[in-house]
Design brief:
With about 350 residues, this protein is of the alpha/beta class. The chain has one domain (about 50-349): TIM Barrel (Alpha-Beta Barrel), CATH 3.20.20. Helix content is about 35%, strand content about 15%. It contains 11 helices and 12 strands. The strands form 2 sheets. Strands 1-4-5-8-9-10-11-12 form an 8-stranded parallel beta barrel, surrounded by 9 helices. Strands 6-7 form a two-stranded antiparallel sheet. α5 (about 195-205) links the parallel β8 (about 185-190) and β9. The longest helix has 18 residues, at about 165-180. It is globular and about 75 Å long. The structure holds the ligand NCc1[nH]cc(CCC(=O)O)c1CC(=O)O and magnesium ion. Ligand PBG binds near residues 144, 154, 189, 242 and 299. Belongs to the ALAD family. Keywords: Heme biosynthesis, Lyase, Magnesium, Metal-binding, Porphyrin biosynthesis. This is Delta-aminolevulinic acid dehydratase.
Amino acid sequence: MSSRTRSSTRTTTPGPETETLSGGFPAIRMRRNRKASWSRRLVAEHQLSPADLIWPMFVVDGAALRTPVASMPGVERLSVDLIVEAAKHAVDLGIPAIALFPFTDPKKRSEDAAEAFNPDNLVCRATRAIKAANLDLGVILDVALDPYTSHGHDGLLVGDEIVNDETNAALVKQSLVQAEAGADVLAPSDMMDGRIGVIRSALEGKGFKNTQIMSYAAKYASAFYGPFRDAVGSSGLLKGDKRTYQMNPANTEEALREVAIDLDEGADMVMVKPGMPYLDVVRRVSETFGVPTFAYQVSGEYAMLAAAFEKGWLDPDKTMLESLLAFKRAGASGVLTYFAPKAARLLAE
Ligand SMILES: NCc1[nH]cc(CCC(=O)O)c1CC(=O)O
Ligand SMILES: [Mg+2]
């Protein structure tokens, strides 16, 4: 019996006397390692755990109030008291961090987004209430003006331009009230140029040297954010689109530049958004920089899956977990996902 040969140049005629075919068969049978559950577990390259999940939540004014988000079945906006309960639930599930987004009363929206720097705005109150409960839980707050502007843009509008530097000054004020409220991580999601640098230096200047920054570094101008804009109440307001500040879905080299710049300016972690349609970008960013890289499975991705689950077209549990594992395979350190509590419960079983 000849020794195994793996030469692909050797040609053989298939037959019972053939010891080795090209590809190594039958010496090599890829299915051997898949033959039983224990073996599949043993050779698994990636693993999803509750520690990989960040749970985004929507906060609404009021008490004991939960209001459904029509385009995101199963997702509710919660009043501050219920957000604290949900935060405790996250800890019980082993979820390390939550991200809070406010539904802002239209009356509190304005051209200058002043509510963003109100130290008693909804996300600041929610953060203080969660922090008062002394949980081992990270609170991540979005830094962007869109929940607070009357026009629904992430920046200040002058004429028909979203002005960069003036917006940065507003983002600094917003960051400081959020850090003061106890936010562990600030997540600038607006895509203005230079905002990580000015926010970082303002935080250092005010003594918030341990406030982390998770930059939405490669954020695309995507149609997948539609349901989120319903959830925060900005979809009816938005004039035009966000293509002068968010990235063109056609680009990936540009994503690497965006990430490099934000790291240089002082970001501790970076994010790619949306998630599943941009796994190639997640892979490139995680491989190129080797820094904590997060992906956001956004509202539209959630809505797509949830709709198919409702129709009985896809198996909810299996599809959800597969969609999340895909992020780990692409190199993500973690995923922001509205499925976080359900996924964490399944993973605990
Ligand atoms: N800047 C705000 C912001 N932060 C997170 C999302 C989207 C999240 C989601 O769709 O789940 C958006 C919307 C947008 O940029 O229009
Ligand atoms: Mg940038």
